[in-house]
Specification:
Length: 190
């Protein structure tokens, strides 16, 4: 009985992986609006019933992929923000995301009112930055710092995924943050 359950679990994992890979391949080739369930099934070499076993439609698939990669970013940041912001933090972030570069770059190109990997990534970056910024009192609006940091990190992430991680970029990003905290903030004494 347990072997049957394990086999079914493996089939589910493989089917979902194949569907996700097919979808990512398709969004690199054609507009999202033109992608059909038939296209996804054909690319994944599965039947429609298999697709509908896991996803309601292509929007559900997109949302689940956005959540999956957003969770990966959130986990990477949670692990690394414990230490502090330094060059290694950003380099490790780029390396961790690089494992999923094709999917992330493809999904970052898509933007809908409710579903956007870029919006989710920025929210996660702001959340983690907010936790870190509680150590400082800023002379300029903290919201501005959060949004500036998120936009800069997004630019660095996309650059690193397209062209490879450059330690100089990580170093520059940290220099910018150090400049902000040194010139526009005071450390909170606890």
């Amino acid at each position: 009985m347990e072997d049957i359950m394990n086999t079914n679990d493996l089939r589910a994992i493989k089917s979902k992986r194949d569907i996700e890979t097919a979808f990512i391949n398709l969004i690199t080739q054609k507009d999202f609006d033109k992608i059909t369930i038939k296209d996804i099934c054909s690319e994944a070499l599965i039947g429609r019933s298999t697709f509908y076993r896991y996803y309601e439609d292509k929007y559900d698939l997109l949302n689940k992929l956005i959540l999956k990669y957003s969770q990966i970013l959130d986990d990477l940041l949670a692990q690394r923000m414990k230490h502090s912001i330094n060059n290694d933090l950003l380099s490790e972030l780029y390396t961790g995301l690089n494992k999923h570069k094709d999917a992330i770059l493809s999904l970052l190109k898509l933007s809908f009112h409710e579903s956007s990997l870029e919006i989710n990534f920025k929210k996660i970056l702001i959340k983690h930055m907010t936790n870190y910024l509680h150590n400082f009192n800023f002379k300029i609006p903290e919201l501005y710092i959060q949004q500036l940091y998120a936009a800069n990190v997004m630019t660095a992430i996309i650059w690193s995924l397209k062209y490879g991680a450059d330690p100089q970029i990580a170093h520059m990003m940290n220099d910018i943050f150090q400049h902000l905290t040194k010139n526009y903030a005071t450390k909170v004494v606890k």
